[in-house]
Amino acid sequence: MRKNFASLAFGAISLFLLLGSSCSVAYNLSADQCSSNSDCDARFGKKGYTCDLGICTCKNATCMSAAGASGKGGSSGSSEAGTGADAGENANGGTGETSGNMGTGGNPAEPECTTHKDCFTRYPDDSEENPRACVEGSCVPLMTPDCPAVLPLSDNHKWNLLKSTDAIILGAYAPINGTTIDTIGNNYDLAVTELSDTTRGVWAGYNQRRQVTVVLCNDIYDTQDKLLAPSKHLMEELKVPGVVGALFLQDQAYVWENVARDNGVFMMMPLPSNQELIDTADNGLMWHMLSGASELSVSYQPLLDMTVSHLKALGALGASESVKVAHVKAKDQTFLKDTASYLEANLQFNGQSTSANLDAGLYAPIQITSSISDATDKQTAAINTILSFAPHVVIGTTASEMLNFIIPGVESGWAAQNPGKKRPFYLLSASDYLDPAMAPMINNEPFHSGEKPLYQRILGVNWPAAADQTIYEAYQARWVAAHAKRQDGYENFYDAMYYLLYGVAAARAPLTGKQIADNMPRIVTAGTKVAKVEVGPSDEMVEAVNNLKVGSAHIELIGAMGPPDWDASGGRNDAASVWCINPLGAYKADELRYDPKTSTLQPSDSTLTTSTISCFPFPAQ
């Protein structure tokens, strides 16, 4: 999964975004509109509609002229004048303006479309570059400057999926530079393409299989309010029932509170969420691919315990000596604040709480402003506090400050400030994993002068990858086939799209965000008698999509990140694994994994005999 999320920034003004819609039907086109042409006659007043697979479809000049005589009809709530025969001039002198699904001067109950294909006929000039979708009877442009792409990319300009089965439209967010899609967006595209090519669509409670397309919106803005335009396009104009939102922290809450909540859209979050948002009463509409600070941080306690044992075995801490712990914590980033709060409330050392250790002069909390908020701060005050306190262990719940400023500063000043005292051991956060600042510091370290080198005094925590890498490696092989070069660390985005797609497949009609939310438990059910389905194209995928047509069917969808582990409200329960640094400065992930049965950290590599990790002997014997 994307582990070094801090390098992209945490805050709303930083990068990413989300969406929503309260009766957010996909298109208000339930497949039980009709069972015969006479049903359509009754519905639309003998306007020439044909019952096509349960949907009243306009296929002749009679209904076209009936709808078209009212004007061209714009996207939801907008106005657009028609021209020539479509100018909307009728016996009553209509102006050609539209409102909602209303044509100009015509009957407000008459839609200008009942399927996406109708919009291709009505707006042929738009049909290649920016086609329109039929949304509650109005033809709405799919793309905007903020949302410039539609997945799968292979169908662009042909739009066969959109037309052929009156496709379900979903939404997603990823960094987009102009019209260039980055690795996140391409991971979404891989998942959508695989499902489309393999299953030819999902049932989603309808009586015909429907393809799925995804409108992709940009999530890189300099101010948070600019997230509203793409969010409203997806959720209020296109009325998508679900989105994958690669949004960071504050942005998730902002979009939820300002757009998504009132529109009832289901949101699958690939990136970290703050604990408050995870705990929000959201009617099941928000699911999170990465566990929150409380679930993740349980691994800190056994890691600190192992570190204390390690220091005592090395003689860096006396057998009966109390350990001194400094805690550098970023006060301006929500996830990091949640992590720091959890540690201060739950961490125990020297047989007592952090508050008791604080009173005893054995704990030093050091608040900083992260470089995300203030890039000019070189963290001199924090460095001086650590040098003065002379801790045995330094815990960092920061963004990039520990590796870029604090560790170099402490190591450079340690000998002069604390002559003869062993240098500290550092426990770092998920935001430090894969930070490129590590390698040059390790490879050129001037610090240790006879002591343990720096790489032997750094461990960190992170969201765990799959223990069994089989599905992950199969996903990587498909990625390389599509893009020529391997890309590790993005499986949370790929999986997020898959869980949304299967959630749609399990939902009932009419398709809403709440329907997806209510049926998500059907695709993450564990059990010996439940079919296990791996992400990616396979015969099992086809069978699973067909089986999910039945409301009682359940599967366990296993992602590239591993088996699903969500609670009933959509919060993920994974505890952190531990990473280390080898002598060359390379990161080694998932060296220790948390065992919830024993509340301990256990080695991932069973072949190790003298250490629990591969980077250096830990804990020392």
Query: Percentage of helical residues?
Result: 25-40%
**Assembly status:** single chain
What is the beta-strand fraction? 15-25%
Largest sheet: 8 strands, mixed
Radius of gyration: 28 Å
Low-confidence stretches: 1-33, 64-106
| CATH homologous superfamily descriptor of the largest domain | Response regulator
How would you state the average pLDDT, rounded? 84
**Which strand order does the major sheet show?**
16-13-17-18-19-22-23-24
Q: Architecture of the largest domain in CATH?
A: 3-Layer(aba) Sandwich
Q: What is the CATH domain class of the largest domain?
A: Alpha Beta
How many strand elements? 24
CATH topological fold name of the largest domain: Rossmann fold
The total tally of domains equals: 3
Instruction: Give the overall form.
Output: elongated
Indicate the structural class: alpha/beta
Number of H- or I-type helical stretches: 19
Distance between the termini: 33 Å
